[in-house]
Write a structure and sequence with these properties.
The protein folds into two domains: 183 residues, no CATH class; 167 residues, C8orf32 fold, CATH 3.10.620. By secondary structure, the protein is of the alpha/beta class. 61% of the residues lie in helices and 13% in strands. A six-stranded mixed beta sheet has the order 1-2-8-5-6-7. The protein has a two-stranded parallel sheet with strand order 3-4. The protein contains 16 helices and eight strands.
Length: 372
């Protein structure tokens, strides 16, 4: 039987907490549990306040006229908007530093006062201490699992990801806690464009679009030879539509990075820098429209039927025009949604659960696979 190391790690955390509770007894463990709860609550409050501050500042910077600002402040404002996660981290550290100094000073006596109120006969009960250890262990498991969940959102860790996916307790927490509560929090800060930035998408030099009723148009792509050759190399050895689609997704998210200069050109100067999929391939940079067009070229050249979707991406308060793709899985007879733009930030956006909660489709271009 193969051990699952994520499950083993979580079990050791729980057993260690139970042993600590048993060794300390009810009174001392009560003090530790209260202190731990206050600390977690303070961290949560600082995270929430830091995130709200970042959202507010990001919206304010986006609506402000930065041309009149001093160069140093303008650069700082644009840097904050380019890296909202870093901004949230800075705000969290500042708030945590202030609150830790103030609140802990006020609340430090509280656990001791609670312990003093417990009768000695009850306070020395090791069984009750172990029971409180279970509560402390569950809390620690939830926190450590959340850290693992966040790490898997931001980094490509295939071996750890497989272990996590096979761990029953981690899956339970992911389905009931992390996906509904943590994922929307981190997904709010993924890049989307400003209003109107996707208008030139259908005018790309190698994409011909024939409008049709129902919000979906038929498209024809003339794939350059270098992109077609690359597609064949990427999908070599893949025999299923899903395997080909995932291979292209993984290649693109690791070889194309988000072009914040192009973003700034549009947002701050009203200048849209149109580029072809070949230019995206050569420079290794692009915004969502460029990611989606390059993916469509690679998928089409691999014999896949693909869509370029346009709509609104993100969540309330942090949403905007966005582009992504869908690939037809002929074996499963279903469309696979994927977002290589967001995938380059968090490698979780291939057929992700809840994909359509953050992607709101408005129009689509259907491109049938090149089966030659």
């Amino acid at each position: 039987m193969t051990l699952n190391w994520v499950t083993v790690g979580l079990a050791l955390v729980l057993l260690g907490s139970v042993w600590q509770g048993f060794r300390r007894g009810f009174a001392i463990q009560t003090g530790h549990l209260v202190r731990q709860g206050l600390h977690v609550a303070m961290i949560a409050a600082c995270l929430w306040a830091g995130w709200r501050l970042t959202v507010w500042l990001g919206a304010w910077v986006k609506s402000a006229s930065l041309a009149a600002w001093p160069p140093v402040l303008r650069e700082l404002a644009q840097a904050w908007q380019r890296a909202p996660n870093a901004g949230s981290a800075i705000a969290f550290l500042l708030l945590y530093g202030v609150l830790a100094a103030c609140i802990q000073r006020l609340l430090r006596p509280l656990p001791g006062l609670l312990v003093q109120g417990i009768p000695p006969a009850l306070g020395h009960q090791r069984g009750l201490g172990a029971a409180l250890g279970v509560a402390a262990g569950v809390a620690r498991i939830s926190v450590y699992g959340a850290l693992l969940f966040l790490a898997l959102q931001y980094f490509t860790l295939p071996a750890i990801g497989r272990e996590a996916a096979e761990s029953a307790p981690y899956r339970w927490l992911a389905e009931r806690v992390y996906n509904p509560w943590v994922r929307p929090f981190v997904a709010r800060e993924l890049p989307v464009l400003a209003e109107g930035a996707l208008q030139p998408l259908a005018n790309n030099i190698n994409l011909f679009v024939v409008p049709s009723p129902g919000g979906q148009a038929q498209g024809v792509v003339m794939v350059p030879k270098d992109i077609a050759d690359l597609a064949q190399r990427i999908t070599a050895g893949q025999t299923t539509d899903r395997g080909k689609a995932k291979a292209i997704y993984e290649w693109e998210i690791h070889h194309v990075s988000y072009d914040w200069q192009k973003y700034d050109d549009f947002v701050y100067r009203g200048q849209w820098d149109q580029q072809s999929p070949e230019q995206t391939l050569q420079t290794g940079k692009g915004v969502c429209a460029d990611y989606a067009l390059l993916y469509a070229n690679l998928a089409h050249a691999s014999g896949l039927t693909v869509k370029i979707d346009e709509g609104i991406g993100g969540a309330a308060g942090q949403s905007g025009p966005h582009a992504w793709n869908e690939v037809w899985d002929g074996q499963a007879q279903r469309w696979i949604p994927l977002d290589t733009t967001w995938g380059s930030e968090q490698d979780v956006w291939f057929d992700a659960p809840g994909f359509w909660q953050s992607h709101h489709l408005q129009t689509a271009v259907l491109i049938k696979g090149d089966t030659r």
